[in-house]
Design goal:
About 60% of the residues lie in helices and about 5% in strands. It is mainly α and about 140 residues long. A two-stranded antiparallel sheet has the order 1-2. A hairpin with a 5-residue loop joins strand 1 and strand 2. The radius of gyration is 17 Å and the shape is elongated. The two termini are about 25 Å apart.
Length: about 140
């Protein structure tokens, strides 16, 4: 009755908020079996432990801030002078690397990172392409 963390479909049963707190993706009234599987897994695997949530939250806030900055830079990049544009492009590459590292198969808090990025789909064509590339679009 526990989820298998190596099964992509099972991993989707848990959602996360920006505070790093896990919850069942499906409400009990929507899908009782999937809800129970997620709730039991959160309990047994101690996914809601305060220190884990704190660390997960720090990771998610960093990803969220990086993506927000990327979207802001993309919006003004074409209007910048070449020298300023080069500095912003460099910073954007750094931020994109942070996000890409967060969804590497061996990244800490991978499921939470993917969840928060999927929530932000449509904000950046770069992010949409990245999610497709890593197979996280669905």
């Amino acid at each position: 009755m526990l989820l298998d963390p190596t099964n992509a479909e099972d991993v989707k049963l848990i959602a996360f908020d920006l505070d790093g707190v896990p919850r069942a993706f499906f409400e009990e009234t929507t899908d009782a079996e999937k809800n129970l599987k997620a709730v039991k897994s959160i309990e047994v695997f101690a996914l809601a432990q305060s220190e884990t949530c704190r660390l997960r939250s720090r990771c998610l806030h960093a990803i969220n801030a990086a993506l927000k900055t990327i979207v802001e830079i993309e919006a003004v990049l074409e209007r910048l002078a070449d020298e300023v544009k080069a500095r912003f492009e460099h910073r954007m590459r750094e931020l994109k690397a942070v996000i890409e590292e967060s969804i590497d198969a061996h990244a800490e808090f991978l499921s939470a990172s993917v969840y928060i990025l999927k929530y932000r789909r449509g904000h950046s064509s770069w992010l949409d392409d990245l999610l497709h590339q890593y197979g996280y679009w669905d």
